[in-house]
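Summary of Year 1 activities. Much of the first year was spent building the evaluation harness for sequence design. The harness presents a backbone, in tokenized form, and records the residue chosen at every position. We chose the following record to illustrate the format because it has been used consistently in internal testing since the harness was completed.
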């Protein structure tokens, strides 16, 4: 069996030193005969004699500092007979430490929640650093296999151009629409009543409401300090709310430059489309009339929450107000509608693909027990495993009731004043971070599963887009170009989007903006995206 070694970061070496044989001509990689003889293919423990693994893990700020001493994982070690050394890396140093580990060749057995870019998964997978999982999933991961068999689009989304699956991603259940949507639009229902206005159904009604908020002392403090519309993360979340009214970003949140042309069905670079231009004009109108919080591009979460606590917001595009703003303010808010645009278009495009964080669980060539390792993560895709992962340990963090498992009062009403997330962090590694598991509404404890969030999602469901694209995968040659092209195009589009919305750029500059994009490798970029989309459809 493998001897545990210290995880030492060596100085970076040139990438060429990583050269390995290409997987195209290799058979599926597996463990030794000794490892297979030690493996139980069903039930627990996973192995008869203890095996040791080193896992490089990205650590979210909301989780425990050291996963080597978390109840959930300690219990799971006993169940599986697998001794894990967790090497924790905080988010602010994750990219540097991850790249150093890959470049040095001093690899862990697994990269977990390390947020590897898709391009790195493809590059290092083809070089043999990450092993292909296709055959291993078929034989040793029945729970993951079941999800892939029942959801062909998920299988397509995790298959690379060479036909290999290199990573176990985070997967949101396609039925858990509240989580797929995430942040939602919320209206101040109390203020709607004061104004004797209905919950807006169109962009024009939305404008009229925001204008009325600005002109009325609705919080009754004698000051004209109401802020009609706010969000956090610049304008992106507000755009998720209203983009469907203008027919853009109609294949979901993961694609910020391309979608589907509603007329031809072809891939479209929508930031140069007339519908996108009309959306920017609408947002410019809101911004110039001070109906959008004026420091939206620099607004921090703390300031947003402070404004909410002062009862200043008429509408927000954010997470559940009851969870964030407290009961007194939060209960004023009601779910916002999908809005109908000027030409009658009404859809909601602010939804993500079920396939997220593709570089989230990768088994390296260093791993001598890949079958056992895959069985280790596969358990958390089972119903019992999901309950354990999200709820913790019965009697410690939850109790079984007639209505199903319920978190204990020590978690939900912590005597030390800890929030639910803080209290759970002492026992499990969720919430926080993207974990390579299947997330369903049955055991998920995040705010997206709160009753008001579920209600908000149900209100949007009739208008959700029919087809949601995952992030596309590319060949090695395409990777080299798409990384450069997309970085430059994305930066320019975002700069000009902000300029048009705030009025820094006049719409008389639109034609020059479009022409500049056409000169930035637009044709090559679109050719690569079209090829990737065709492969995705044919997978």
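For this record, the design step produced the sequence shown next.
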């Amino acid at each position: 069996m493998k001897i545990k070694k210290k995880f030492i970061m060596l100085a970076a070496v040139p990438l060429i030193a990583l050269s390995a044989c290409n997987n195209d001509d290799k058979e599926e990689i597996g463990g030794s005969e000794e490892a297979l003889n030690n493996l139980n293919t069903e039930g627990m423990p996973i192995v008869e004699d203890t095996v040791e693994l080193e896992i490089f893990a990205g650590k979210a700020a909301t989780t425990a500092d050291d996963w080597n001493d978390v109840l959930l994982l300690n219990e799971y070690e006993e169940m599986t007979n697998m001794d894990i050394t967790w090497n924790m890396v905080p988010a602010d140093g994750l990219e540097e430490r991850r790249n150093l580990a890959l470049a040095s060749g001093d690899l862990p057995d697994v990269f977990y929640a390390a947020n590897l870019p898709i391009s790195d998964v493809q590059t290092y997978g083809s070089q043999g650093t990450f092993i292909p999982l296709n055959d291993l999933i078929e034989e040793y991961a029945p729970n993951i296999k079941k999800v892939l068999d029942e959801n062909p689009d998920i299988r397509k989304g995790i298959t690379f151009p060479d036909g290999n699956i290199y990573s176990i991603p985070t997967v949101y259940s396609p039925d858990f629409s509240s989580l797929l949507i995430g942040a939602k639009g919320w209206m101040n229902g109390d203020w709607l009543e004061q104004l004797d206005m209905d919950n807006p159904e169109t962009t024009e009604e939305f404008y009229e409401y925001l204008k009325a908020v600005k002109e009325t002392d609705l919080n009754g403090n004698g000051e004209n300090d109401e802020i009609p519309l706010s969000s956090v993360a610049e304008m992106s979340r507000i755009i998720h709310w209203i983009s469907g009214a203008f027919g853009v970003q109609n294949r979901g949140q993961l694609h910020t430059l391309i979608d589907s042309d509603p007329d031809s069905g072809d891939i479209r670079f929508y930031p140069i489309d007339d519908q996108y231009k009309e959306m920017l004009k609408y947002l410019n109108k809101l911004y110039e009339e001070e109906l959008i919080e004026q420091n939206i591009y620099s607004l921090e979460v703390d300031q947003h929450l402070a404004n909410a606590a002062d009862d200043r917001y008429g509408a927000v595009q954010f997470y559940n107000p009851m969870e964030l703003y407290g009961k007194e303010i939060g209960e004023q808010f009601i779910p916002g509608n999908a809005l109908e645009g000027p030409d009658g278009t009404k859809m909601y495009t602010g939804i993500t693909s079920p396939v997220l964080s593709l570089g989230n669980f990768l088994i390296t060539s260093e791993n001598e027990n890949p079958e056992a390792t895959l069985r280790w993560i596969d358990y958390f895709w089972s119903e019992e495993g999901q309950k354990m992962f999200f709820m913790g340990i019965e009697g410690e963090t939850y109790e079984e009731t007639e209505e199903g498992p319920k978190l204990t009062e020590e978690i939900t009403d912590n005597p030390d004043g800890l929030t639910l997330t803080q209290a759970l962090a002492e026992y499990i590694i969720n919430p926080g971070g993207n974990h390579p598991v299947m997330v369903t509404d049955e055991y998920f404890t995040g705010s997206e599963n709160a009753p008001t969030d579920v209600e908000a999602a149900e209100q949007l469901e009739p208008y959700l887009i029919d087809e949601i694209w995952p992030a596309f995968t590319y060949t090695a040659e395409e990777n080299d170009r798409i990384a450069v092209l997309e970085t430059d195009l994305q930066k320019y589009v975002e700069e000009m989007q902000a300029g048009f919305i705030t009025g820094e750029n006049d719409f008389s500059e639109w034609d020059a903006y479009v022409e500049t994009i056409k000169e930035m490798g637009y044709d090559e970029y679109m050719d690569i995206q079209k090829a990737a989309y065709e492969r995705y459809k044919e997978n």
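The first helix runs from residue 33 to 38. Quantitative recovery figures across the full test set are reported in Table 2.
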